[in-house]
Amino acid sequence: MAYHPQSNGMVERWHRSLKTALRCHATTTREWTEALLTVLLGLRTSFKEDIKASAAELVLGTTLRIPGEYFASEETIGYPQVFVEKFREYMKSIRPVPTAHHTRTKPFIHRDLDDSTHVFVRVDKSRSPLDKPYEGPFPVITKINQSVFRINIKGTAQNINIDRLKPAFLEATQPEPTLGPSEPADEQQQLPRLSTVTFAA
User: Fold this and answer.
1) Hey, what's the torsion of the CAs at 154, 159, 163, 165, to 10 degrees?
2) Which residue windows does the record flag with biased composition (Polar residues) (predicted)?
3) Could you name the CATH architecture of 118-168?
4) Residue 72 to residue 62: CA distance in whole angstroms
5) N or C: where does the chain have the smaller number of CB atoms within 10 Å of the terminal CB?
6) 201 residues of the chain, pLDDT tens digit each
7) Are 32 and 18 in contact, with CB atoms under 8 Å apart?
8) The model's pTM
9) Residue from 76, 96, 95 nearest 86 by CA
């Protein structure tokens, strides 16, 4: 969870509401543990506008009675079957609300990555500041889909996500020019071969 903090955003938002409510009781009670049960009861019975219900209604199927409600409701259910039918209809009407990742950033993808024959692979493990952030280049075996490439890394085929890849632009090697049989031999610069070496006295 610590590696992806956006995945527990709803829990972090609830913790913020809990801490704010506990601060409001700091002037009336000396210990925050004394007000914890009252604060939790208030958070569980509070109406949530996005889900059109409270946390207690989602878990228990009915609202909780807070200390301010001294009198019971006049509407009572005579038979358990009636309660079960109403509870089923109520639970069917509840729909989960999809969470939104507001802090999620889109990774940069190089436009030449699809046509690259070799790529660099980013090192995600912990490293010293002087270590290279990328390894490679490694040859591309195939493109599995729009977000995964199969790379030949040191003789092993591995599936790597594109957010860790960067295209490698290799310099094309040109073959050395060779003289054909029809070309004159004087164009070939050859040094004379010495058979003996004599030093003067």
Assistant:
1) 30
2) 187-201
3) Roll (2.30)
4) 13
5) C
6) 455 555 567 778 888 888 888 888 766 556 778 888 888 888 888 888 877 888 888 888 888 877 776 666 566 656 778 888 888 888 888 877 777 666 666 767 778 888 888 888 888 888 777 778 888 888 988 888 888 889 998 888 889 888 888 888 877 665 666 655 555 555 445 545 544 444 444
7) no
8) 0.36
9) 76
